[in-house]
């Protein structure tokens, strides 16, 4: 198995990565995870702790070495290079079954598996789903762990517990320290044991960099239009005409979990919709993932200012941008203001900092497929 630090050094030498002292300071922890996995057996899953040992907070002395491989929880501000380090981690893990996946996407897969387990009549629906994940994967690399959905919050603790018992090692990034996950969420007291589990089974490290590596990139052709521009509507129409060409646009119907999700205009793998078409309806991560997989470029008209008055729509917009970002979909949009000024106060404004940073990155000329 390679080292993350070696890959980092190679990328610095070839100019792919700009060296950052904060990033370099966490490379030994990433290397440590891979070295521990090399040294620990993977064939025998860890045994769960007995009830009294769990109560006392101590481990099982008879547990196999695989149970002793601590994962890593890497948190810090937006644009600090966490996702890039996760990519390097996945690239370096050549000797073990590993998977690098966005946390939202993974939890959607888990919820689908739970539905199937419940239909089979399984009393503990989480356990067989987690065991199936462990059967295929020893190292899970999650990007952007954040928990806002109560359905995820209520099962994630049990899910991770079984994954750890099965010897799965988890490395994840997040914009929040563990204690701030699912903050102010409904029935949060039921979620708190998961925070203890993270602290017990994962090394928590803050990536404390002063540099936002998503800013200051070379600007390409304008793809974000605000009222300050001379004719934002006309610019959007011109972009649409250029991307679609002579192909006739039609609505696109996507079937997601037995329901229809419509994109109002679609041609040449380019879609166009208004903000309210996509975020004013009760759509979720699975819908946005399906949409992101169907297009190479997406035009969104009329993104408003976001606040508590349209909180649900703002949450959906954040989820939509996450899906587009992960799929590297080219985004062209007209909005009430620049990304950093769309959502400046009230509940949800902290989480939107990451979205604003992603929206800024997605304006780069090299972004996406279109």
TrEMBL record:
Transmembrane residue ranges: none
Keyword line: ATP-binding, Cell cycle, Cell division, Nucleotide-binding
Statement: the UniProt record of this protein carries the keyword ATP-binding: yes
InterPro entries per UniProt: ATPase_AFG1-like, P-loop_NTPase
GO terms for biological process, alphabetical: cell division
Superkingdom of the organism of origin: Bacteria
SUPFAM superfamilies referenced in this protein's UniProt entry, alphabetically: P-loop containing nucleoside triphosphate hydrolases
One Pfam family per UniProt: AFG1_ATPase
Protein name as it appears in the record: Cell division protein ZapE
Species, as recorded: Paracoccus onchidii
């Amino acid at each position: 198995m390679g080292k993350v630090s070696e890959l980092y050094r190679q990328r610095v030498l070839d100019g792919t990565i700009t060296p950052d002292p904060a990033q370099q300071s966490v490379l030994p922890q990433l290397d440590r995870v891979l070295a521990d996995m090399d040294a620990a057996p993977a064939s025998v899953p860890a045994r769960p702790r007995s009830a009294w040992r769990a109560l006392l907070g101590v481990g099982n002395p008879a547990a196999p070495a695989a149970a002793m491989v601590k994962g890593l929880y890497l948190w810090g501000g937006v644009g600090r290079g966490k996702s890039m380090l996760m990519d390097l981690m996945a690239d370096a893990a050549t000797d073990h079954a590993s998977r690098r996946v966005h946390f939202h996407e993974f939890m959607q897969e888990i919820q689908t598996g739970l539905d199937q387990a419940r239909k089979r009549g399984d009393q503990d629906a989480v356990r067989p789903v987690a065991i199936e994940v462990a059967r295929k994967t020893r190292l899970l690399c999650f990007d952007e762990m954040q928990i806002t959905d109560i359905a995820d919050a209520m099962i994630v603790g049990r899910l991770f517990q079984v994954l750890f018992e099965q010897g799965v090692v988890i490395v994840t990034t997040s914009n929040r320290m563990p204690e701030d996950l699912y903050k102010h969420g409904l029935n949060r007291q039921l979620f708190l044991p998961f925070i203890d589990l993270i602290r017990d089974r994962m090394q928590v490290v803050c990536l404390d960099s002063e540099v936002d590596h998503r800013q200051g990139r070379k600007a390409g052709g304008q793809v974000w239009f605000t009222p300050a521009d001379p004719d934002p509507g006309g610019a959007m129409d011109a972009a649409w005409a250029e991307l679609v060409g002579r192909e006739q646009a039609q609505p696109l119907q996507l079937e997601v979990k037995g329901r229809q999700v419509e994109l109002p205009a679609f041609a040449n793998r380019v879609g166009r919709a208004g903000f309210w078409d996509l975020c004013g309806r009760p759509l979720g991560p699975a819908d946005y993932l399906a949409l992101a997989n169907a297009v190479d470029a997406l035009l969104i008209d009329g993104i408003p200012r976001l606040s508590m008055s349209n909180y649900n729509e703002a949450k959906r917009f954040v989820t939509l941008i996450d899906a587009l970002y992960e799929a590297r979909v080219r985004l062209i949009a007209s909005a009430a203001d620049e990304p950093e000024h769309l959502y400046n106060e009230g509940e949800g404004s902290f989480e939107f900092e990451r979205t604003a940073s992603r929206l800024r990155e997605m304006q780069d000329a090299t972004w996406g497929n279109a």
